[in-house]
Amino acid sequence: MSGKVILSTVALVSAIGVLIFAVAAPTDSGVDPTVPVAESDPENPNNGSTGSSKSSDVIVDEPHPTPKGMVWIPGGSFVMGNDESKQQDEKPAHEVTVDGFWMDETEVTNAQFLEFTEATGYITVAERKPKREEFAGLIDDISKIPEENLVPGSICFNPNFDRKMVEQAKKESPNWPYHIWQYRQGANWRMPDGPDSTLEGRLDHPVVHVSWTDAVEYCKWAGKRLPTEAEWEKASRGGAKRDTYPWGNEQMPDGKWMQNIWQGEFPYDNKLLDGFEATAPVKSFPPNKFGLYDMSGNVWEWCFDFYRPDYYEHSPSRDPFGPAESFDPQEPGIPKRVQRGGSFMCSSNYCIGYRCSSRMKGEPVAGSFHCGFRCVLTPEEYKLAAK
Ligand SMILES: [Ca+2]
Ligand SMILES: [Ca+2]
Question: What CA–CA distance (Å, rounded) separates 176 from 164?
Fold first, then answer.
């Protein structure tokens, strides 16, 4: 498949994303159970950003017995972002206070997602056939969309990418990774590598090819919600204020790999020094001090928040949950939600997404082979669920 075809296919997926998002995304009205609980303040001077204006005491101590499979993240303040980063969207570093909450100790696994689909019959976005009319208004002439493109599928790594084309694209555009991704027909969470693959031997791996909207549906079923970006970073830091990684500042303490990432030059040479080429079973590496596994690497994790690179410039300091709308300069016009933690595809010469402060973004209706999620629950939501 040529790079041009890959690009056009990815563009097709993007267009689907825009459309479905417009219909499926929940509002930030505060009535949706997946939206973080916080007071709204129409007089909030934060340029349309959302977050809590409450001044009540921070919830620090765990108020109820720990829900199964979760750990308590004590409330408090931490420094969010990183002024030393090469990535502008991590700046400025700013102090944020969040209330205590519970977080899943691992990424949601295939076994857990299977339980959800068996209980609800839920079909993920990647399993649904895109409809031609869904592109009306987004593409000049929808009759020109090749029928063979209107098939269910998801984004995978293309190991047969054209190296020359990648080299050239790197010089021209931050979107050069389009040349190494491939829209693979039939790829979805049940068949992570495409139609010939299965979940055999992978039930304890993180679920992948789930969109943000799929993740939200899982959360509703589980009585939980997606973490805010601030909650995610607070949890990732394990109680430390400015460490680079969830375990400290040294990437390989005692010479040991602490995360499933990509060793070697991306995307040409994966040396597999951590033992895993793609997803690893959850809990393959030590937890951070809060007891959370794989907060660095394995798979990216969806957060609730819309993505904006400039959000930290005017973020509320108490329980922020993202801007009112998203903006990604790399793909203006396509809504984006935040992803955190990096994946098995992250290397030191590319996204370095496995640091506590790293930010990523994705179309809410598009899953991929290296993105999953985990859930959180606050004491207030715990009480609401118990009623
Ligand atoms: Ca690896
Ligand atoms: Ca992860």
Answer: 12
